[in-house]
Amino acid sequence: MLRVCQESELPDQVLVLDNASGHPANLAEVGALLDFSVFTRHQTSLFQPMDRGVIATFKVYYLRQTFMELVRDFDRSGKTMNDYWRSLDILKVINNIDTAWE
């Protein structure tokens, strides 16, 4: 990060924001009091490792776990996919998240 700041001649102390839509729209007013820089969409993944594939990998594991549970449920009880999705509750989702994260 420091190297990028030196190469782009940013001040030593600068608030760097990603391009999330949740940031306030009135940043220009704050800019008079604070030096800040906003990443473009393609720069964000360079500085936030979660954007580099961790989230995508987690989603793959989560979907795999959920579909494995769906197939097991289908094999055991002969329920349809619609029955499985209707029976899915927050506890099952949290358990699938836990298993996927592990």
Keywords:
disordered N terminus, 2 domains, 2 strands, elongated, mainly alpha, two-stranded parallel sheet, 102 residues, 60% helix
Question: Which secondary structure elements does this structure contain, and how are they paired or packed?
Answer:
Blueprint: H1 2-7, E1 15-17, H2 27-31, E2 36-38, H3 41-47, H4 54-77, H5 81-87, H6 90-101
Parallel strand pairs: 1-2
Helix pairs in contact: 4-6
Low-pLDDT residue spans: 1-6
Order of helices and strands: HEHEHHHH
Measured between the Cα atoms of the first and last residue, the distance is 30 Å
Radius of gyration: 22 Å
The tally of structural domains comes to 2
**Structural shape:** elongated
**Strands ordered across the widest β-sheet:** 1-2
Helix amount, in percent?
55-70%
Largest sheet: 2 strands, parallel
Number of DSSP helical runs:
6
Coarse structural class: mainly alpha
Instruction: Write down the overall mean pLDDT.
Output: 75
The tally of beta strands, per DSSP, is: 2
- Strand fraction band? 5-15%
What does this molecule look like?
The protein has 102 residues and is mainly alpha-helical. The chain folds into two domains: 2-48, no CATH class; 53-101, no CATH class. The chain is 60% helix and 6% strand. The chain has helices at 2-7, 27-31, 41-47, 54-77, 81-87, 90-101; strands spanning 15-17, 36-38. α2 (27-31) links the parallel β1 and β2. α4 (54-77) crosses α6.
Describe the structure concisely for a colleague.
The longest helix has 24 residues, at 54-77. By secondary structure, this protein is mainly alpha-helical. The protein folds into two domains: 2-48, no CATH class; 53-101, no CATH class.
